Amino acid sequence: MENVRDPREHINEEPRHDLMDVVFGFGGMLTFMTVVFAAAVIIKFVIS
Known about the structure:
The protein has one helix at 18-47. By secondary structure, it is mainly α. The longest helix is centred in the C-terminal third of the chain and has 30 residues, at 18-47. The radius of gyration is 22 Å and the shape is rod-shaped. It starts with 17 loop residues before the first helix and ends with a helix.
């Protein structure tokens, strides 16, 4: 392993599924923001 910058020398030890990571991240953030929005609406109605 003389050339450490050669990508062919590095074996992908843990394969990742990037699309699923993006889907879960987007879904998680969407869920979180929906909960925050619903809480803000409820708090607004309670205050007024």
